[in-house]
Amino acid sequence: MSKLTNGELNNYLWGAADILRGSIDSSDYKNYIFGFLFLKRLSDVFEDEAEKVIQRELKRGTSQAEATKIAMEDPDEHQFFVPKRARWTEIRKVSQNIGDELNKACHALEDKNQILEGVLADIDFNSNKLGDTKNRDSVLSRLVNHFSKISLKNTDLEEPDMLGRAYEYLIEKFADDAGKKGGEFYTPRKVVQLIVELLKPKEGMRICDPTCGSGGMLIECAHHIERKKGNPRNISLFGQEKNLGTWAICKMNMLLHNLPDARIEKGDTIRSPKLVKEGELMLFDRVIANPPFSLKDWGVEAAQNDGFGRFRYGIPPKTKGDYAFMQHMIATINDKGMVGVVMPHGVLFRGASEGKIRKALIEEDRFEAVIGLATNLFYGTPIPATILIFNRNKPKERKNKILFINASACYEGGKNQNKLRDTDIERVVSAFNGYEDVERFARVISQDEIKENDYNLNISRYIDMTEPEPRIDVRDALKKLRDLEIHRDQAEKKMDECLKGLGYGK
Fold it and tell me: Is the pLDDT of residue 181 over 70?
């Protein structure tokens, strides 16, 4: 049998959505399809591991019965132990109350694997969202049959990381399908890649995303290291996510990318930061995030009584949490650390308490770059965003300066959404690395000039963002004019001839 290719797997997994289409809201697809994918993957890998254990034991002279018992009942023989009721062979036997049996299978998996605690708990296969019992059994039975047609054993996959990349594909598809809701758990991959390229994570680093969603930014850091011929397992990944369903997706994502050691905490980062040690915030080499834009109920009361010293630059307005997340991130980088964060443009110029915080950050020389992106790159909002780079260890030649990059024209237009291209990423990264003026694209601005502009970081103040006047080639224009005159004379001559032929004279 030929091995399953990445494209075939992607199409097959997305085909599962066709079974759910019309039964539930598209924003809920992910919970069920991710659940089935995860159950099937763990069961198939368990069976693969069990077969290897049986062969090993038989070579040692163990009886078939004893070898099978060891393979199927000893948790130490498996990365994830799958109890009998959670094995796919048992799930396929169920014909009634399938949702209830699937829920029990998930609970059994979590009971036997501490690392999976809470990962599957948020998926309710017995939910009324799937209709009454009869309709629910029909839909779930079709999904079981659908997933039964493919093998997700490592030996049956064309590439080792196929499951992880297929999972990313599904997350992107679900975000696209869910529209505005999709933006809550997924940042477009090319935007993530751009920020990671700017931060340049390396082996041995501790990397954190305090609003990690489905974990794409952390995983892209691992991919970046792999592209640089490093070991993607030789980094420490940390994250926190408020939405429990999204937290579970993130945990599954990490496991399917073979990053089981990633520490992903549940909870509100501002109100209750969980990445702490001995009562102090943990510090990281890189912090990367796309927090919710201008969150209204962000937790001003927590900031006013913060015990971690995160808000020493000032308390943000109670209806806009952008500078709360920024200050949290800056507070969690070490003395050589960098932050890459997506923000709405308003943080560059809004006044009052935000203006005071921005002024303090500029005077402490925390900003390294301000990068303006194109409109309509993100799910759920057409507004343009900006990437801010903060650095506690700016090179000497960059101190007391900020690089502004106008990347608003760097995109490929799409039917529903614009996208960054590889060439766009290369252009922005090249400008950041060069840290020098590029006509109509990038400018290095001194702190003194920013002070003269009342600490306003609006990109249009420093880079001419108007459309350039088209250049006119005078010689070419005169030639075209002469050609028009010739054509006009020829047309008049023909008209005169026609009129004479009709007897009208000149």
Answer: no
DSSP state of 378: B
Average pLDDT over residues 156-180: 78
Burial bucket for residue 338 (CB in 10 Å: 0-12, 13-18, 19+): buried
Instruction: Tell me which residue of 342, 222, 239, 232 sits closest to 284, measured CA to CA.
Output: 239
8 Å CB contact between 109 and 78: no
109 or 478: whose pLDDT is higher? 109
Tokens of 335: 């003395």
Q: What is the mean pLDDT of residues 278-284?
A: 96
Q: Identify the CA nearest to 395 among candidates 363, 365, 361.
A: 365
Spatial separation of the C-alpha atoms in residues 463 and 440, rounded to whole Å: 6
DSSP states along 66-93: HHHHHHHH-GGG-SS---GGGSHHHHTT
For residue 1, the model assigns a pLDDT of 57
CA distance 213 to 185: 4
Say which DSSP state 318 is in.
T
Please give the structure tokens belonging to residue 357. 């915080």
| Burial of residue 210, with CB atoms counted within 10 A of its CB: 0-12 exposed, 13-18 middle, 19 or more buried | buried
In this structure, the number of other CB atoms found within 10 A of the CB of residue 465 comes to: 14
Reported as a single tens digit per residue, the pLDDT across 318-336 is 999 999 999 999 999 999 9
Contacts of 496 (CB under 8 A, 6+ apart): 506
Mean pLDDT of the 102-110 span: 96
Contact between 389 and 339 (Cβ < 8 Å)? yes
Q: Is the model's pLDDT at 179 over the cut of 60?
A: no
Distant-in-sequence, close-in-space partners of 54: CB < 8 Å, separation ≥ 6:
64, 67, 68, 70, 71
